[in-house]
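With this grant's support, we have settled on a layout for protein records. An illustrative entry appears below exactly as we store it:
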Amino acid sequence: VSTQSTWDMALMRTRIGLILVLLLCGLFSLSAAKIFFEEEFNSGWESKWTKTAWKADQQGTLEITRGMWHGPDDIAFGLQTKSPVKFHDISAKFPEPISIKNGPLVIQYSVKFEQVMDCGGGYIKAIGPDFDPKNFGGDTPLLIMFGPDICGSDNKVHVILDHKGKGYLWKKKPQAPNDKLTHIYTLAIYPNETYSVFLDTHPLENGTIAADWEFAIPKEIPDPNDKKPEDFDDRMYVEDTTEKKPADWVDEEFIVDTDAPKPEDWDEVKEGKWAPPKTKNPKYKGPWQQKKIYNTNYKGIWKPKTIPNPQFTGSIIEPYTLGGIGIDVWQTKPGTIFDNIMIADSLDDAFTHAQKVLDNLVAKEKEFKVEDDVIEEAKAKEAREKMQEQMKMQEKMKAQEEVKDEKVGEKEDLQ
């Protein structure tokens, strides 16, 4: 075999090896990504979800519906709140607890406020593995609460995170759309304790858990044994000791009223020696104080030195172990549709499904909304014109009454 042929065979084997490595890597990455839970509220959804008995007399009705604007049937159906001034609570317990340690925890779902929300929530809750679906409700400890909450002018997207049994509010408060359209909310929490929030696959907010929630344990703390030196002067301004009180400065607020007469019936035997009362001193200038001047010995604000925090373990939160997902909302007006719930460890998988919803459902909703807006505007215009016509009639009747009153007055004057 020639040298050239040997080189060609070696090169071919190398290329084949590289191709196999790439294929294996691709297969590994595909197998690594996983959708742990998915709900589109199609046939068979009832077997996974449990309606609560918590506050049973205050629970509203939840129904499967396509909504007033809808797309293809395979993505159109969702779970809708139907009862005014009621709770709507339902949950699904996972067959096995979900704990994601090597990738992002991705929670995604869609919500649509058909009623144009005035006061109520549209969020979902991720719950620990020990919860009881039959008693799921506002008292159930949550791990994550995520989604929009609207009440009047208070409009925000919640991300509440559990830390050692207590829920902590997100410092950021982005606003949620309230336009009768389906919107997709996505939350990703990464192993490095950063996070991202997306609306319709577009970035809404991102940051670190340490900066945006109050429960973060600091790496360093003030040294409790570090004391301020006695010669450390932290007074920025001091009194000007060279300044003296003026000789004519009067700081006596009250003086004896020398003009006050002694009462004629004053009995010194019974009441003691009479003394004139005190009166406000007209020359009083207030307490005298030396003016303040900058302290040339000022060293700044003293702070103790910091030391490593013995409670800091290198991570702020441990990976959550999820046992289920739930809807727990109270609404004055019903009509909210929940759908397309997903728990995964891949944003790509979540966004692939989200894009399907945006392209096939939301795009159709927008077409319906344009038509509906035209109809609503026509109705509003008709109502305005009717109101204007009524006002004109009222003004005409008022003018006629005024003319009538004037004629009656003239007639009475003649008599």
